[in-house]
Amino acid sequence: MKRVVVTGGAGYIGSHTIIELVNSGYSPIVLDNFSNAKREVLAGLKAILEFEPHVEEVDCTDRSALFSAFERITSGETIDGIIHFAAFKAVGESTLMPLKYYSNNIASTVNILEAAKRFDVSDFVFSSSCTVYGQPETIPVDESTPVRGADSPYGYTKQVCERIITDFVRSGYPLKAALLRYFNPIGAHPSGHIGELPLGTPDNLIPYLTQAAAQLREPLTVFGNDYPTPDGTCIRDYIHVLDLAKAHVAALNWLGGQGTTCEAFNLGTGQGHSVLEVMRAFERTTGVPVPHRIGPRRTGDIAAIFADTSKARRELGWSCQFNLEDALRDAWNWQQSTVD
Ligand code: WQD
C-alpha cells in the first residue's frame, strides 16, 4: 500500500483528501500542528474511516522537528509521495499580517522539499491557488494564462512556492511535481462528520452564508454590487471539496507514471457563479432564506474568474462529479451538524 505524507492533513481540504486517499488504496500519514485545524477533525475522520490515520503533530516550519517526524515515519518503510497543504490561506488576513504568511507558507515549503530530498521522495503534490492569476485579462483561465502580480501576500506566497518547486526541479533533483491551482473550494463530506471549520468569523463566503442562514451571525454582507458583471456581484468558480480531494488522488496516480516533471493544473468546475446566484441557489436547494445586505467592496477582491479545466481532464483523467447545488446542500448539512 503506497504511503503518502499529507502536511496540513487535519485542515479543510486536507481532511477530505485523507478520505479519498484511503478510498483509493493509499495509506495517508497526517502531519499537522493544529494551528489552523481543530483536533476534533480526527474524530470525524475516524467516524468515516472506522480507524484513525497515523498522525504526527509537527510544525513544518521547524525543520529539525519535521525531519524527526520523517525519521519516525520512514523507520523501516519508504514514503511514496507527499501532498503539501500546510499553509495559512486567508486572503484578507494576509494583507494585515504579511510576515506571518511569508514565514509560514514559504519556510514550510522549503523544509518539506528538503525532507523530500533527505528521505528520497520524488512524487510531490502542491496545494496552489487560482490567486496566482490575479485579475486575468480573459476568462476562463487556462494554465498558460500569465501568472500576474499577486493581489495579496497569500497569493504571492503561492507564486513564490510554485517558483521554488520549479527551481528545485531545474536544479536536477528528480522531483515529480503537480501544482494544483484551486478555485473556490466549498461544501463538506455528505456524512456531516467533517467540513469547513473556520476559526472565528469566517472570511469565506459559504461558511459565513451558512452561519447567517442558521442565524448564528449578522446578515451576510455582499461585498459590492457595482462590479462589471451581469448582476454587479463578483463571479467565482465554486468547486465541491470532494471533487478537489479526488483530484489529489488523480494527480498522485498521474505522477506515478511520469518522469521528472513540474506541471500546473486548474481545479475548478469550469463555471462561474456570482455571489447573488450562489445565494439564490442556496435558498432554492435548502428552502432556507439568507438574511443579507449589500455593502461596500472588499479590498483585494477581483471581479471575476473561473477555470478552463481541460488540462486536468485530459492529463489527469479527472473531472467534477458534483455541482453547485450538491456543494451547497452538503455545506448546509454540515452547518446543521456542527454545534458551536
Ligand atoms: C468569494 C466571493 C467576496 C464573504 C478564496 C480563498 C483563497 C483561494 C481563492 C484557494 C468574493 C464574496 C465573501 C462575504 C461576500 N482559494 N464575499 N461576503 O476571495 O475568492 O478566495 O478562493 O487557495 O484561498 O480565500 O473567496 O469566499 O472569500 O469570496 O460577498 O462575507 O464572495 O467578495 O466575491 P475568494 P471568498
Describe this structure in words.
With 340 residues, the chain is α/β, with parallel strands linked by helices. The chain has a domain at 3-188 and 238-268: Rossmann fold, CATH 3.40.50.720. Helix content is 40%, strand content 17%. The chain is built from eleven helices and 13 strands. The protein has helices at residues 12-23, 40-49, 63-74, 91-96, 98-118, 153-170, 205-213, 241-256, 275-286, 310-316, 324-337, and strands at residues 3-7, 27-32, 54-57, 81-84, 123-129, 176-182, 184-186, 220-223, 235-236, 238-240, 261-267, 273-274, 292-295. The strands form four sheets. A seven-stranded parallel β-sheet has the order 3-2-1-4-5-6-11, sandwiched between helices. α1 links the parallel β1 (3-7) and β2 (27-32). It is globular and about 55 Å long. It starts with a strand and ends with a helix. The model has no long low-confidence stretch (mean pLDDT 95). Bound molecules: UDP-4-deoxy-4-formamido-beta-L-arabinopyranose (WQD). Residues 89, 91, 129-131, 182, 184, 203-205, 208, 220-223, 234, 236, 275, 298, 301 line the site of UDP-4-deoxy-4-formamido-beta-L-arabinopyranose (WQD). UDP-4-deoxy-4-formamido-beta-L-arabinopyranose binds at residues 89, 91, 129-131, 182, 184, 203-205, 208, 220-223, 234, 236, 275, 298, 301.
